């Protein structure tokens, strides 16, 4: 129907799946993800060896696991990016419902692995973090509801998406996992704004978020401790932030040399939350700027391609996925340089973590599927035609 009304671009009948996928995919974003994965393996060789030795494991135990999960993530990304938007939407909704149930059952069956937050299921041979898989599914579900609200006689999808967001944020805060809760709320806010919400309404919601933060500060010792540490004028050199700050300062522009860094021996999360500190110490500001440029390029290119999209669902879902990807990277690196309070959030495709890297692969696969060139043409073609 869309093609009948707005016109279409010629499709190549009978073209095989792989050539069509390669012709329509955003190759620059795909290349950026591959480079990030390679950088993650390079940094894993430096950051995870001390932890493996401390736990009495093979020196490259965590690197080999990161490579295994990474290739699984790339396979999931490739497969998902070949799907049509309708199939991505169906799978995203199903995945969201499954992840939501798993999130709700965490207080009963979950574990904290001694970190003070019940976020994981222990499977014996590995662990599973539902919130990582919830994020891409939530974006798909919220975008579907908001897009449905734009149809004639459509349901109040924006309100439903807001209620759904409150439910998810509540369960995440109970773990507690305020970092993921903020990321989910941010993704919803971006999509809600793109869907046509007024700036005043978003300002009111932002005020409610601040009020919720004040309540969380009074009610959660875990949350209050992190905020107090962030606001403190002095940095305790024996804390993770202290070690990371010193490592970044020691690295300078070109780093102290490959394998010469010391922060990986002091930071327990050097291979996950503070991987960028290892990069800054051993490779210097040069590699850090490359990493920042890659995340910025993938996010910006995706948003520019989505600006040409006519389908409201694709536009909303793609925007939510792209912004969540970019902001997660921003939060991780912001914590390392003490621009943000500690969040316990990984750097997509670079940090070690099975759930994180596989979920990132699925999310980027969805984003690449939404930003592929499709026969229905671009929105400016329709606007030009209407102006004639």
Overview of the structural elements:
With 388 residues, the chain is mainly α. It has a domain at 95-346. It has helices at residues 2-6, 17-24, 27-47, 49-54, 61-81, 85-104, 106-109, 130-149, 157-173, 178-194, 199-219, 221-231, 240-251, 275-306, 312-336, 354-370, 379-387; strands at 121-122, 127-128. The protein has a two-stranded antiparallel ribbon with strand order 1-2. A hairpin with a 4-residue loop joins strand 1 and strand 2. Helix 3 (27-47) runs antiparallel to helix 5 (61-81), helix 8 (130-149) packs parallel to helix 10 and helix 10 (178-194) packs antiparallel against helix 15. The longest helix has 32 residues, at 275-306.
What characteristics describe this protein?
disordered N terminus, globular, single chain, 388 residues, two-stranded antiparallel ribbon, mainly alpha
Shape type: globular
Radius of gyration computed on alpha carbons: 22 Å
SS content category: mainly alpha
Query: What's the arrangement of strands in the largest beta sheet?
Result: 1-2
Task: State the helix count.
Answer: 17
User: Major sheet, described briefly?
Assistant: 2 strands, antiparallel
Mean pLDDT: 84
Count of beta strands: 2
Distance between the termini: 22 Å
Helix content: 55-70%
Uncertain segments are 1-11
Order of helices and strands: HHHHHHHEEHHHHHHHHHH
Q: Per DSSP, what share of the residues sits in E-state strands of 2 or more residues?
A: under 5%
